[in-house]
Structure formats: structure tokens, C-alpha cells
Design goal:
The chain is of the alpha+beta class and 184 residues long. It has a single domain, classed as Gcn5-related N-acetyltransferase (GNAT) (Aminopeptidase, 3-Layer(aba) Sandwich). The radius of gyration is 16 Å and the shape is globular. The protein contains six helices and eight strands. Strands 1-2-3-4-5 form a five-stranded antiparallel β-sheet. It has a three-stranded antiparallel β-sheet with strand order 6-8-7, with helices on one face.
């Protein structure tokens, strides 16, 4: 286990900008993002709305980046990406596409630090990701799953033209979640 952690800490991944919007860069995560990911995945809002990923250390965070977003990009050509402010290159959240077990459609996922909520960043990043999915990846339909009491996320999905489909049992979840879908 220690050997794998040492190998991960020595690896460097040059971030690739997937897209840019008026105020944001959406780029691949790198191991340099480990402190940010550690913070984001342990935010009370993340734990409540998305779930506990058991990321407690920087090594855990680097392993999460490697076996999650990086592996997804290698396998599918898409994954969760870092969202950062253009003006400061400060990471504020994650947004991207996922191929979740148990879901037929590719799923959009996002999470932002609470101090960056209600500023339009999630809408801007998710709109860019959906446009990229259609234009560059040829996708025609995208899904989204959300806790039924997460009204902020539901509102965002509806602004993005997602429509409620049905309740589903997520692979990693304990309770049913709402499944939304959008035609691109």
C-alpha cells in the first residue's frame, strides 16, 4: 500500500483544458489538485448530497483522482474535471461526465465549494460540459441523478433543460434518487 502511494505521489499529470467559458476553465484534474479534492469531498454539502467517498488524506485524494477522473478519461474519453476561475486559476468545483454502473446514459456530475454557490458558476460549467458532450463527443442524451431534497441541484438541472424521468436506486447509494435526462 505504501509503495502504491509513493508511486502515485511521484506521478505528474499535465492538466488539459477541456473547455473554457466566459469566467471559467474546465480542465482535467491532476495530482496537484489533491488538497482541493480533499477539501471538496469532505464538505458537509458534498457528504450530504453526493456521499462519503472516504477520502481523508492527501494520498487518498491522489488515489481518488487516479482511479476516478483520470481512469475515466483514459477508458471513456471523459470524466470529472476541475472547474477553476480564469482570473485566478483557483479551483472552485468539479464538473464533468461519468459512466456510472447501473445507468444506461452518460451522467453529468458537479460539486462546488459552498462559497461559490449562487454565482452562476455551476450553470456556466455544466452548460459548457453539455455543449462539449454534444459537439465534441457526439452525445445525444445525458442523464443526471440527484437526491430528491437537493432543490438547488434540481433547479440547476431544470435550467439546463433536464426533465425528471423516474426514481432509481443508485449503485453506491442507500436511498432512491431522482433520475433526470436531457436531449442534447
Amino acid at each position: 500500500m505504501l509503495r502504491a502511494a509513493l508511486q502515485i505521489s511521484k506521478m505528474r499529470h499535465v492538466p488539459v483544458v477541456v473547455l473554457e467559458t466566459e469566467r471559467l476553465y474546465v480542465r482535467h484534474l491532476s495530482f496537484d489538485d489533491a488538497p482541493f479534492i480533499l477539501r471538496l469531498l469532505n464538505e458537509p454539502s458534498f457528504l450530504e448530497n453526493i456521499g462519503d467517498r472516504n477520502i481523508r488524506t492527501l494520498d487518498d485524494s491522489k488515489a481518488y483522482i487516479r482511479r476516478g477522473p483520470m481512469q475515466s478519461h483514459e477508458k471513456h474519453g471523459f470524466g470529472l474535471d476541475c472547474v477553476e476561475l480564469k482570473e485566478s486559476e483557483k479551483p472552485i468545483g468539479i464538473c464533468g461526465l461519468l459512466q456510472r454502473p447501473g445507468l444506461v446514459d452518460v451522467d453529468i456530475g458537479y460539486a462546488f465549494l459552498p462559497q461559490f454557490w449562487a454565482k452562476g458558476y455551476a450553470l456556466e460549467a455544466a452548460s459548457g460540459v453539455l455543449s462539449h458532450a454534444k459537439k465534441n463527443l457526439g452525445m445525444k442524451r445525458i442523464a443526471a441523478i440527484v437526491n430528491e431534497d437537493n432543490t438547488n441541484s434540481i433547479c440547476l438541472l431544470e435550467k439546463l433543460n433536464f426533465r425528471y424521468t423516474k426514481m432509481v436506486n443508485p449503485p453506491q447509494g442507500k436511498k432512491e434518487v431522482k433520475l433526470y435526462a436531457a436531449i442534447l
